[in-house]
Amino acid sequence: MASITIFGKGSMGSAIGSNFEAAGNEVAYLTKDMPVEQLGEIVVLSVPYPAIAGILAAHRDLFAGKIVIDITNPLNFETFDSLVVPPDSSAAAEIAKEIPDASVIKAFNTTFAATLATKKVAGAHPTTVLLASDDQEAKDKLIAALEGSGLAFIDAGSLKRARELEAMGFLQITLAAADKISWTGGFGIFK
């Protein structure tokens, strides 16, 4: 059992938290204006990308030694036509620069809340979480903490792969927003 702290309790934070709880973990949610005194072993950043800078600045020391899950897709929500990170980087890489004493993992950004709740994409295919990090032990701990949740996992490689995962997430969101796929749909991965 792991101790999980989730920043944000929207649809994604709640769906991710439910999966951790289903796997037998202890989950605490932090919402805006709540005091933060300590963080769990695994910390999930389930807030819009622009909010992360403030969270990191306010609680930087608490992230040391933690496994930090970045679920964001750093979309430009004004134009809905680009990402707001440098083209040779990712939100996860930018976060890792800010908290170098933490192990950052990109995960959950290519899944919708509905697919995390039902464990199915388009009602038929298993929900697969892609993850990327430079810390293999942290990836293994995340997968172990979610064993029994009903989710499938694929290790996409090093943190460099977060850029491609964010591009996939961006495409999926823009397709759903344009009603070309449903919010219960998404990418299915078959081995």
User: What is the percentage of strand-forming residues?
Assistant: 15-25%
Shape: globular
Compressed to H and E, one letter per element, the order equals EHEEHEHEHEEEHEH
| CATH fourth-tier homologous superfamily | NAD(P)-binding Rossmann-like Domain
Radius of gyration: 15 Å
Uncertain segments: none
N-to-C CA distance: 28 Å
The count of strands amounts to: 9
How much is the average pLDDT? 95
Descriptive report:
The chain has 191 residues and is α/β, with parallel strands linked by helices. It has 6 helices and 9 strands. The protein has a single domain, classed as Rossmann fold (3-Layer(aba) Sandwich), CATH 3.40.50.720. Strand 6 (120-121) and strand 7 (125-126) form a beta hairpin. The radius of gyration is 15 Å and the shape is globular. The model has no long low-confidence stretch (mean pLDDT 95).
Tags for this model:
single chain, 191 residues, alpha/beta, Rossmann fold, 7-stranded mixed sheet, 6 helices, 9 strands, globular
In brief, what are we looking at here?
By secondary structure, the chain is of the alpha/beta class. The chain has helices at residues 11-22, 49-59, 91-98, 113-118, 136-145, 162-177; strands at 3-7, 26-30, 42-45, 67-70, 103-107, 120-121, 125-126, 128-132, 152-157. It comes from Trichococcus ilyis.
Topology summary:
Elements: E1 3-7, H1 11-22, E2 26-30, E3 42-45, H2 49-59, E4 67-70, H3 91-98, E5 103-107, H4 113-118, E6 120-121, E7 125-126, E8 128-132, H5 136-145, E9 152-157, H6 162-177
Parallel strand pairs: 1-2, 1-3, 3-4, 4-5, 8-9
Antiparallel strand pairs: 5-8, 6-7
Organism: Trichococcus ilyis
Protein name: Pyrroline-5-carboxylate reductase catalytic N-terminal domain-containing protein
InterPro entries: NAD(P)-bd_dom_sf, STEAP_metalloreductase
